[in-house]
Amino acid sequence: MTEKTHDADVAFIQALAELLRENDLTELEVKREYGKDDQLNVRVSRKGEAPAPISYAAPAPAPAAAPAPAAPAAPAAAAPAASEDPADHPGAVTSPMVGTIYMQAEPGAPAFVKVGDQVSEGDTLLIVEAMKTMNHIPAPRAGTVKRILVEDKAAVEYGAPLMIIE
């Protein structure tokens, strides 16, 4: 029984390491509880450059603040976004986990939502893939999709704003 749990833990840690590498993250920490007095705490980290995770931590503000050459291309459109953090918006839908964003159910299918769409509470907005599991992210409230802050197949961190629904 112990060997079986050990093998499962090793496979779990390998999956975390793969998720770390695929999403260009520098660190990932997970706590698993199997029962009373039986748990697994795992922190997987790697040495390397940190620019990629920094851009994922705040996807909307990073383009306006970090790459100066990109900002002059659309100053009128970027000015309102730069003055307000999308995560602070009352209609912000944030990521419940670290993973990869998919805007449609499968390649070639239409996107779940686009800017201007009316959504009902519980409608699927997008998918976040985490550890080979596709997690449908539901609309927390009914409203209109005002902004989509992520791109298809982009990595996202926990708590990062995904879209604005008003």
From TrEMBL:
This protein's record includes keyword Lipid metabolism: yes
Signal peptide as annotated in the record: none
Known role: This protein is a component of the acetyl coenzyme A carboxylase complex; first, biotin carboxylase catalyzes the carboxylation of the carrier protein and then the transcarboxylase transfers the carboxyl group to form malonyl-CoA.
Coiled-coil regions listed in the entry: none
Gene3D superfamilies: 2.40.50.100
Span list, region Disordered: 57-95
Ranges of Pro residues composition bias in the record: 60-72
Protein's recorded name: Biotin carboxyl carrier protein of acetyl-CoA carboxylase
UniProt xrefs under InterPro entries: AcCoA_biotinCC, Biotin_BS, Biotin_Carboxyl_Carrier/Decarb, Biotin_lipoyl, Single_hybrid_motif
Any one Gene Ontology BP term: fatty acid biosynthetic process
UniProtKB keywords: Biotin, Fatty acid biosynthesis, Fatty acid metabolism, Lipid biosynthesis, Lipid metabolism
Annotated metabolic or biological route of this protein: Lipid metabolism; fatty acid biosynthesis
Compositional bias annotation for Low complexity: 73-82
MF-aspect GO terms: acetyl-CoA carboxylase activity
Domain Lipoyl-binding as annotated: residue spans: 90-166
PANTHER family: OXALOACETATE DECARBOXYLASE ALPHA CHAIN
Keyword check for Lipid biosynthesis: yes
Gene Ontology terms: cellular component: acetyl-CoA carboxylase complex
Pfam family for this entry, one: Biotin_lipoyl
